[in-house]
Design the sequence.
């Protein structure tokens, strides 16, 4: 079975509140453009429900997906060529007891590859149709499934090509949502729950030092310095500031 028939590919864009109901359109791409993976992409617009987990779950509940597997990639993420070839060769022979596939996340930032500090994170990004749901959460959305997960040699890159100012504005919104989640104590990752038991602001500085010095983030040069400062220190300080604001309002 061709990979395009086995994987459901959905591209959705958020639209402003109060806009028209969801619309669906199809854009046909040549095999040369999509390398034979997605000759047709369905583009769906749906009013933003407030968080990514709810948005993706809406797609799972409402779109006519017929493919055996569902692949979730954000607009700034892509699979490596080798990963696409692996999926082409192996997707049809994966054991029926396996409901989800675990990929490796790698990052690029400000034009450079991030190889240290936060590299090699494992994430479920593909699952069988009807076998996965997104847990209700404001941040760090995760796919919940009942069957087995299989770690596979598939790598996807997070490579945001927008400006740093755009990135910072996006993370200001993230900080507000993560602050709410921190106070509610609803983290699925026990490491985050442990992190938020540490003193505010000091924990952010310690986290940055671990990533940048102990985990050798400085070896990635300018890109590594920018990534670990802005995402590992500035963003963490921002979350602590938002937590303080929420506590003041109580």
Sequence:
């Amino acid at each position: 079975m061709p990979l395009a028939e086995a994987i459901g590919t959905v591209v959705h864009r958020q639209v402003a509140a109060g806009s028209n109901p969801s619309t669906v359109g199809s854009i046909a791409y040549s095999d040369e453009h999509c390398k034979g993976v997605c000759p047709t992409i369905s583009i769906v617009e749906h009013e933003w429900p407030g968080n990514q987990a709810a948005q993706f779950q809406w797609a799972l509940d409402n779109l006519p997906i017929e493919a055996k597997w569902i692949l979730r990639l954000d607009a700034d993420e892509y699979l490596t060529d080798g990963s696409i070839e692996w999926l082409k060769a192996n997707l049809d022979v994966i054991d029926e007891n396996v409901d989800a596939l675990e990929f490796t996340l790698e990052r690029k930032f400000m034009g450079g590859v991030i190889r240290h500090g936060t590299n090699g994170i494992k994430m479920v990004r593909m699952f069988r149709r009807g076998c996965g749901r997104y847990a209700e959460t404001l941040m760090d959305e995760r796919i919940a499934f009942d069957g087995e997960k299989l770690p596979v040699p598939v790598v996807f890159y997070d490579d945001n090509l927008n400006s740093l100012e755009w990135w910072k504005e996006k993370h200001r919104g993230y900080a507000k949502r993560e602050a709410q989640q921190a106070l509610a104590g609803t983290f699925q990752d026990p490491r985050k729950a442990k992190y938020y038991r540490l003193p505010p602001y000091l924990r952010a500085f310690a986290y940055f030092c671990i990533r940048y010095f102990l985990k050798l983030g400085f070896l990635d040069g300018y890109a590594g310095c920018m990534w670990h400062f802005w995402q590992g220190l500035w963003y963490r300080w921002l979350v602590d500031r938002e937590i303080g604001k929420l506590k003041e309002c109580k």
Summary: Residues 8-22, 26-33 have pLDDT under 50 and may be disordered. Residues 3-159 form one domain. The two ends are 57 Å apart (CA to CA).
